[in-house]
Amino acid sequence: MRRYVLKRVAHAVFIMWLVATTVFFGLRAIPGGPVSAMLGQESTPEAAQALRQQLGLNDPWYVQYSDWMVDLATFDFGQSLTTSQPVAELVMQAAPRTASIGAVAVVVGLGVAVPAGIVSATRKRESVDYLATVAAFLGLSMPAFFVGILLALVFGVWLDLLPVFGYTPLAEGVAPWLESILLPGVAVGLPYGAVVMRMMRSSLLEVLDEPYMKTALAKGVGSRVRLYKHALQNALIPVVTVAGIQLALVLVGSVTVELVFGIQGLGRLLVDSMLDRNYPVTQVVILLVSAVLVFTNLAVDLAYTAIDPRIRYGGESA
Amino acid sequence: MNTEFGENRGTYGPGEVPPEYEQSAVAEEFTTTRQRLVEGVLGDRMALFGAVVILLFILTAAFAPYIAPYGEEQTFGFMKEPLSSSQGDFDDDGELEQAFHPLGTDSFGHDILTRLIYGAQVSLLVALATLAVAFTFGTAIGILAGYHGGWVDSLLMRYVDFQWAFPELILGVAIIALSGGLGVVNVVIAIGIAYIDDFARLIRGEVLSIREEEYIMAAQTVGMSDVRIMTKEILPNAVAPLIVQATLMLPLAILAEAGLSFLGLGVRPTTPTWGLLLSDGRQFISEAWWISVMPGLAIMLTVLAFNMFGDGLRDAFDIDEGEVEAR
């Protein structure tokens, strides 16, 4: 087991290196680099040359590349090209906002989706099932930003219950913080929950059809124990996979929803920095996002062993 | 043979079969794939709904100039409510007319219904072109990897795995930034590339099992070229999951286009697209909610229809849910 974990962690680190390298070369291949973007209309060849020198863009690529790797390893991410703020500071400002939205989204998504999937599967073809299925279809079909706009319209503009603009840090109290991220969180969580609910339903239906469920019934196991102990434990495995992989959906949803609610999170930072050709910021945000995704996948894989003791990796005993 | 059924001995004479086994003796009537699909879709209310809406969507896009009540760029009163009309001289004949706006007008004074109808054109175009890109490259990668195996497989699938680790929209944003410009072509390339991995993974899995079939060996024995085997023997036999995947990818492409347009990274700002219209209305949400909500509903209805149709198709083709990826 330990060897398996080490192997997986090494693989994850390798992927991260690959991402860092791709991002490095990819961004430098863009026509019209940061220099022309920063100088704008008044660009002269001399000024551009001076700025390139100052930014270290004149060094040979391998020097830039090794500098970038050393910087990454030492967590020195450099400065934003547009505001000269340290990139780390920008990211540290934005990350908690996106993380808050993501946390609400996951809590809301899973909190609704898993029970809904269970009810839907155990009462197949009853009206509850139809209701949940249609709701999931709607959730799948609405882009997160549209859900966000609808929520803002209903709860912000018409009912005037919740703020629809900006973010209040957790330091200013739990209630204001929650109020500021509840709507964006729900908006991001709805499509996520829809995917998880559909998976929960189909996975549980499949398991309920297994012969061992009949065996349990024949043995006289009570319906509760049958559902929660026998069926759910097996049915949850694919759900965990999907819930983990689809965290990407939460991140993507957050990018657009942050725009709806005027929250300067990682998504805004990423899009803005890309439009400004602000390499240092773009690089770090992409790396951070992919690190979250890669390590979530890792955590999901490792969580299997906890849920399903039958799984033993690489023929080794755990 | 029937003498083995202890209880029925004597009841059924030689050559007779007990009633409970009679069913299995009747072979299931042969149905062609087309029959099966038509019956599957017609018998599934959700799939039928999806098919009808998709048909309407395609017709709307195809005949947009004839259906739209007004011209694409024609302007009327600003931010008129749904079901209201604006008054003015709109056809330059010196007389005042009433122009009815079933869905209202936007902040520029465009009739929203007209913009939505033209937007359907862009959505359909982008979705189909994107599908073509993702399908072509994804299928090529998948077939090559699956058929050749070995280092070709490792190399191509490493790339696919790498791409798979990224959310499509993030990838799309990155490609838009790399290609350095707005426009329909860039959007198509960005979204198309972002969905290559789904097709590649799917088709590779199919090829791995098809490769072992005897007719492939036969084709190799008679000296068919690899390219011919891949296109004439393997591809047609992997078509069912590909069709389902394609149906489920179209709504994702529509969503992705709307998302990119919403972020301001999509098509050029004056093009009528649902995402852009929705994004334009965002700042007027408190005065004129319909500017954002109407295009959102259009996106929702179309995507919903494709999802329901795709689901029905998947059931009709009897494909495992895990095999093709929805989202």
Question: Which helices and strands, and how do they pair?
Answer:
The complex is a heterodimer of chains A (318) and B (327).
Chain A: H1 2-28, H2 34-39, H3 45-55, H4 61-73, H5 87-122, H6 127-141, H7 144-158, H8 174-208, H9 211-219, H10 223-245, H11 247-260, H12 266-275, H13 279-307
Chain B: H1 19-25, H2 33-43, H3 45-62, H4 64-67, E1 84-88, E2 97-101, H5 112-148, H6 150-164, H7 168-179, H8 184-194, H9 196-210, H10 214-221, H11 226-237, H12 239-263, H13 274-281, H14 290-317
Antiparallel strand pairs in B: 1-2
Helix pairs in contact in B: 2-3, 2-14, 3-5, 3-14, 5-6, 5-8, 5-9, 5-12, 6-9, 7-8, 8-12, 10-11, 12-13, 12-14, 13-14
Provide a descriptive summary of the structure in words.
The complex is a heterodimer of chains A (318) and B (327). By secondary structure, chain A is mostly helical. Chain A has a domain of 185 residues: MetI-like fold (Orthogonal Bundle). Chain A has 13 helices and no strands. Chain A starts with a helix and ends in an 11-residue tail after the last helix. Chain B has 327 residues and is mostly helical. Chain B has 14 helices and 2 strands. A two-stranded antiparallel ribbon of chain B has the order 1-2. The chains are: A mainly alpha (318), B mainly alpha (327). At the A-B interface, helix 1, helix 6, helix 7, helix 8 and helix 11 of A face helix 7, helix 12 and helix 14 of B.
